[in-house]
Amino acid sequence: MVWYHFCFASNHIFAKKKLVMKTIILSLSGDSGCSALSPFKVAVLQGNIIEDKDVEQLVKGLTKDQVQYLLGTPLLNSPIHPMRWDYFYSVKVGDIVVGEKKLTLKFDSSEKLESWILEEESMGNS
């Protein structure tokens, strides 16, 4: 009889704690619109990281080796367009593209930097 009473009491306490935990979880998920239960999404960085401080160091007349030292190996170095290098960088969280940068460099016939164009797009939370 004592054993039955002990088991019943401990099961009752366990059930009560379980009910309290369920209530807390449901109330928290109700306040946040179930976003607390959605999976964590990692930011995925792709391409060459293009920082403003590196782009500011570009000057006309740099050699290809000097440019590569500053920015790293270009993402696209086509044999069809040997005087053009393309760098691309994007940040994606889940299915949403947060931002993109594209840097196009053009070299003259003596393989010195002639011009560059930086295209930057920030999507935000769209």
Q: Estimate the mean pLDDT confidence.
A: 79
Count of β-strands: 4
Q: Strand order within the widest sheet?
A: 1-2-3-4
Please state the structural category: alpha+beta
Regions with little confidence, pLDDT below 50 for 5+ residues = 4-9
Report the β-strand fraction as a percent range. 25-35%
What letter string, H or E per element, gives the SSE order?
HEHHEEE
Rg of Cα set: 29 Å
Largest sheet: 4 strands, antiparallel
Describe the global form: rod-shaped
Binned, the helix content reads 25-40%
N-C termini distance: 65 Å
With helices defined by DSSP (H or I, 4 residues minimum), what is the helix count?
Answer: 3
Tell me about this structure.
The protein has helices spanning 2-31, 52-56, 64-71, and strands at residues 43-47, 84-93, 96-107, 113-122. It is an alpha+beta fold. The protein has a four-stranded antiparallel beta sheet. Strand 2 and strand 3 form a beta hairpin. The longest helix is centred in the N-terminal third of the chain and has 30 residues, at 2-31. The model is unreliable at 4-9 (pLDDT under 50).
Features of this protein?
single chain; alpha+beta
List the helices and strands and how they pair.
Elements: H1 2-31, E1 43-47, H2 52-56, H3 64-71, E2 84-93, E3 96-107, E4 113-122
Antiparallel strand pairs: 1-2, 2-3, 3-4
